[in-house]
Specification:
The complex is a heterodimer of chains A (about 500) and B (about 100).
Chain A (H helix, E strand, L loop, with lengths): L7 H9 L5 H19 L2 E4 L1 H14 L11 E5 L27 H9 L2 E6 L33 H8 L5 E6 L5 H7 L2 E4 L19 E6 L2 H11 L29 E5 L9 H16 L3 E5 L7 H16 L18 H12 L2 H14 L4 H22 L5 E5 L15 H6 L5 H6 L3 E8 L5 E7 L5 H14 L14
Parallel strand pairs in A: 2-3, 2-4, 7-8, 7-9
Antiparallel strand pairs in A: 1-3, 4-6, 5-6, 5-10, 9-11, 10-11
Helix pairs in contact in A: 2-3, 5-6, 9-11, 9-12
Chain B lengths: L5 H10 L6 H18 L34 H5 L5 E2 L2 E2 L7
Antiparallel strand pairs in B: 1-2
Helix pairs in contact in B: 1-2
The chains are: A alpha/beta (about 500), B mainly alpha (about 100).
């Protein structure tokens, strides 16, 4: 049994009883990385020397009042800025950003809790993609079957947790980038309510949609990691100033009498029969636990993908204007004038998908097209948000699959951007509405690939989302299955 | 059906400050047209009386006091620069 098969509570008990040390935990992380990361390709940069040094210090300083995250090995998605630790967002244009100048707010918060950063995790370049095939460096593999993608864009973050390379990780979610890879890799991933977690130090993709969130093996540990990173931040003007509950309190309550809405659009044509079956089995489980469910409609769901790609690409085209080869990052070697230096540096540094989205966004914002595309999409966003608000007047949560299918084979979708976009249909509306959503394991396909159940809640009601996820997890064993890798038996 | 010409693609690439090869112009013209045509789906909806959502939270302008504080030093700010001289970022000349 790996040390990472325990829960946070169990690990802390072992630390305080001196059964294990922080150094053991950190050692376990790097040993596992050495053993399996050639196969998985989850890490872009390791923090080994620093982490081992920190572990020694933490072992000396362990006190009785230590946080529940004390000394626990964490992986960080590479679009979250870490002071002094290479941060690239998996883009060639930041390939040489070896010495970032500050920590993201979430990293500062984790430092207060004394987690140990093991390294930076691979992703689709600038978080644009659903398979990790858009990484500017290498492709992450799905630990359950390395011929398959881990999902994206937080593919490294999900795969590293599933493969037992770190205890848990942080990802980011703009249109499903935490939930979909969590679903594909059989782990638990939460996208918090927009504004709950500071975006300061998250390399911006689409500022009105991006959120950082936790990826873990269990629902309870997910809540503990979220607790550590939430809170108002004066460095992020979109950070919400709301009262933060104790998320762990959610687990004291069952789901008797809970009202579940199941949008018919979420089990419609296009959803794989095996996925549908697993979700219906989960709903049956909830009935047994005393909850009720009814079919509802989110009538504007079919417009979400189009609205999302216009809005997110427009915001991205503005956000990515900062990469110009002047202050940091890679500059073209070609000897050209100033304007061509910008153009060449960007052409050489960005990958195809990033260029495609910058072009789409620039087009949608350009003179003569702004009202027809960008503003239209913003209006449709309102309709999608209203759909959710209406449902939440009568129901506590919305449940459906996280993704219409299990993981794709590597190479299966890469040549057809549009089809790949459409597969994000079940996660995207959640970002557009700004509500929280979690993916928890709810079964496996015949091929042995994980299936994810998505639970969506009201704004700032992560507690109910966790309670509902926890009730299911405790009643089932899906989260206890582990992939077989390397020397595993 | 929205039609996108190669000239438009070149124009957008210039606005986006992206050098673009002929091969990329060909490919992007087709791909952008596909995506834009898909986005035409939104025109099924009457949104004349719908307010646009720029942000899901009802935040108004958030201000903080503009007070000086310790931040990145000039030396640090320059240390990841592709080119620098005399404490400043250096770029190709703009004037002849």
């Amino acid at each position: 049994m790996s040390l990472f098969d325990y829960t946070l509570k169990e690990l802390q008990e072992k630390l305080h009883n001196k059964e294990i040390t922080v150094s053991d935990l950190v050692e376990a992380s790097y040993n596992r990385i050495n053993e399996v990361d050639d196969e998985i390709q989850a890490f872009l940069t390791l923090n080994e020397e620093e982490a081992k040094q920190q572990a020694k210090q933490l072992d000396e300083q362990l006190g009785s009042d230590a946080s529940i995250l004390y000394g626990v090995p964490i992986g960080i998605k590479d679009n979250i800025v870490t002071k002094g630790l290479r941060t690239t967002a998996a883009s060639q244009i930041l390939e040489n950003l070896n010495d970032p100048l500050y920590d993201a707010t979430v990293i500062e918060k984790l430092k207060d809790e004394k987690t140990v950063t093991i390294g930076k995790l691979n992703m689709d370049e600038f978080a644009m993609g659903s398979t990790n095939e858009n990484s500017g460096f290498k492709k992450v593999r799905n630990p359950w079957n390395t011929d398959y993608v881990p999902g994206g864009s937080s593919g490294g973050s999900a795969a590293a947790v599933a493969a037992g390379e770190v205890f848990f990780s942080l990802g980011s979610d703009t249109g499903g980038s935490i939930r979909q890879p969590a679903s594909f890799c059989g782990v638990v991933g939460l996208k918090p309510t927009y504004g709950l977690v500071s975006r300061f130090g998250l390399i911006a993709f689409a500022s009105s949609l991006d959120q950082i969130g936790p990826i873990t093996r269990t629902v309870e540990d997910n809540a503990h990691l979220l607790q550590a990173i939430v809170g108002h931040d004066k460095m992020d003007s979109t950070s919400a100033n709301v009262e933060i509950p104790q998320y762990a309190d959610a687990f004291k309550q069952d789901v008797k009498g809970l009202r579940i809405a199941v949008p018919k659009e979420y089990l419609a044509e296009g959803v794989d029969p095996e996925v549908k079956e697993a979700v219906l089995a989960a709903l049956k489980q909830y009935e047994e636990l005393g909850a009720t469910w009814e079919e509802v409609s989110l009538p504007h769901s079919k417009y979400a993908v189009a609205a999302y790609y216009l809005l997110s690409s427009s915001e991205a085209s503005a956000n990515l204007a900062r990469f110009d080869g002047v202050r940091y990052g890679v500059r073209t070697e070609k000897r050209v004038d100033m304007l061509d230096m910008f153009k060449q540096s960007r052409a050489e540094g960005f990958g195809d998908e990033v260029k495609r989205r910058i072009m789409l966004g620039t087009f949608a914002l350009s003179s003569g097209y702004y009202d027809a595309y960008y503003k239209k999409a913003q209006k449709v966003r309102t309709l999608i948000k209203n759909d959710f608000e209406k449902i939440f007047e009568d129901y506590d949560v919305v449940i459906g699959p996280t993704s219409p299918t299990t993981a794709y084979k590597i190479g299966e979708k890469i040549d057809d951007p549009l089809t790949m976009y459409v597969d994000d249909i079940l996660t995207i509306p959640v970002n557009l509405a700004g509500v929280p959503g979690i993916s928890v394991p709810c079964g496996f396909s015949k091929e042995g690939l994980p299936i994810g159940l998505q639970i969506i809640g009201k704004h700032f009601d992560e507690s109910t989302v966790y309670r509902v996820a926890y009730a299911f997890e405790q009643a089932t064993d899906h989260h206890k299955k582990r992939p077989t890798l390397g020397g595993d038996k | 059906m929205a039609d996108i010409s190669k000239e438009q693609v070149k124009h957008v690439a210039n606005l986006a400050r992206l050098a673009i090869t002929d091969e990329e112009v060909e490919r992007m013209t087709k791909q952008l047209a596909d995506i834009i045509n898909y986005a035409e789906l939104l025109n099924e909806l009457d949104t004349d009386n719908v307010k646009p959502t720029t942000h899901v939270l009802d935040l108004k302008n958030v201000m903080r006091k503009d007070e000086p504080r310790e931040w990145i030093s000039k030396e640090d700010a320059l240390k990841n620069a592709p080119d620098q001289k005399d404490g400043q970022f250096r770029v190709p000349s703009i004037l002849e």
